[in-house]
Amino acid sequence: MNRAPLFLLYLNVLVVATCGLIYELLAGTLASYLLGDSVTQFSLVIGIYLSAMGVGAWLSRYISRQLAASFIEVELAVALLGGTSAPLLFIAFGSIDWFRILLFGMVFVIGVLVGLELPLLMRILKEHVDFDDLVSRVLTFDYIGALVASLLFPILLVPRLGLVRTSLVFGILNALVGLWGTYLLRPLLTSRRAAGLRGRSVLVIGLLAAGVIKAESLTHFAEEQQLAAKIVHAESSPFQRILITQNSNGFQLFLNGHLQFNSVDEYRYHEALVHPALVSVEDPRRVLVLGGGDGLAVREILKYPSIEQVTLVDLDPAMTTLAERFPPLAKLSGESLQDPRVRVVNRDAFVWVGEQRELYDVVIIDFPDPSSFSVGKLYTSYFYQRLRQRMTENAVIGIQCTSPLVAPQSYWCIINTLEEVGFHVQPYHASVPTFGVWGFALASRSPFSHELPPTEKLASGLRFLNPLVLSQLFTSPNDISRLDSEVNRLNNQALVNYYDREWSRWE
Description:
By secondary structure, this protein is α/β, with parallel strands linked by helices.
């Protein structure tokens, strides 16, 4: 075998390794996305996939004849199963009770097939290359493939193609490797066998290509099955999947499958989040909002005539411009983000806060729940310490802290972390029908000079809060009393582990 075909076979190793890791990342992401409990699910997927690859490598010893044909057959099996894994799992999630068995079963089978690929290729090549060179070259291309996959997956594939299209596209790539192999390995195949393998390769490529063309419809169908509601807006940004569903009562916003608000009762959540902090500061002028790209918290802030500037920091420009693409949200938010007093910054709040020198009278924190380490860093003592430096002496933070009833240790972890960095904290809660009992907190650099926020400064015309209700928010029942917890630190995000464990019990 001359140098050109050898190089092409090594290129096959690169493609095979890239596809293999992509399927592993897809499965882990899907498990986290659909099942929650991101740390546990991703860890289980990686463990099952790697052990399955070991099983596949061990089974390869029993394939002793027709190595070239076996390799191509395995490629086509990986292409078909790996390529259809994302759409099949999305559709199955809302339809079957044994979804976890299906998910981990598919991960195991794909892992076994991927584990078969490299040993078969190495045995095909060993007749033509010195063993030491063979091992070093194959492993070099294998690791390069892993690097390519790990870079492409978060930077390009998921943001641009989405999970379903990524799965189908890499299935096609695997099938093309199989088709290509019928020509590269032609001397090792009979004419009849080569023709049959080519026909099957073309069939698999055709089926997966049809899936790519219909990917948006498949995704739409699967998401409607999952959410059990009609989707009226869907888009994938580089940072998240944004969905809006609608029913007879109103519309609902989902980010990466997690409900953010229901238009029917969001006013309860946003009034409870914003107004206790605003009335706790004497004539607040400068307000910082972290998260809350839907503009609903800003809507509440602008009800106070003393406000001169609101700075909204949200990572995703697709979120802060969503009202332009979905007019009902513009109406619900009162077009708050178009107010001349509002400045929108599309940056990572974790980085942005450390770069600033401006001081704020009020900070409203409306981040998503800490379901992953990337979000959990925004609830760490390190972040709160940096945020403390951006506040005036009498400034107050209003922060959402997940449900103290469903996830009490998560809730008190946030409170304890704020106290750890020197904040004086007043926890409180409100009832939001869509979410149940929801937790919040006020935090200030200075001791609160009153037991409760002064009710006489409350904005008029609110739908939920009045002076009596505001005072009652700070009265806690026994079943959400304080619990001990670790402080959530950047190098040890205990909060994410608490959150995963507590919410998984209710799903």
